[in-house]
What does this fold into?
Amino acid sequence: ALAKAAQSMRTAGTAILCEGYMDALAFHAAGVSNAVAPLGTSFTEGQASLLKRYAGTVVLAFDSDEAGTRATERAMGIAEAQGLKVRVFRLAEGKDPAEMLEKYGADRLKKEIESTITSDDFLLAAAGSLGAASGTAAAFSYLFPFMAGFSSDIRRDSFLEAAAARLKA
It folds into this structure.
């Protein structure tokens, strides 16, 4: 949907990256015209570079299942490495945007997409859940690969402080 979304992405400064074309179509049907999809969970550096031509921020709107969560984690690193600001859209109800549109309608989907979290908040929430189940060491083991990918020592230190506070380490 890049051809349809290009102008909206430029205007909004944001691209909504969906897992598949049905989700991108759902956003467009709901009147959210800056949605695109890499067709599956294979988001690449080339696609991130292409998105950066149109927008400075990417909202990852992948499915809420385990595969979608893993795709979100992978896409965060790729997008941030290309210099994109990353936010994450987590569906409160429903597996994916197409399902939400079908169950709850366009107004609900439009309202929900306005509620995104930062990539840091996404990672810290996942680490917090893991820490509650498996301990603080497991939570930090989950976070270390992401922190290794941070391009700035300042960002890494800031994130580590936030993780320590959140995980009470």
Remarks:
- The CA atoms of residues 53 and 60 lie 17 Å apart.
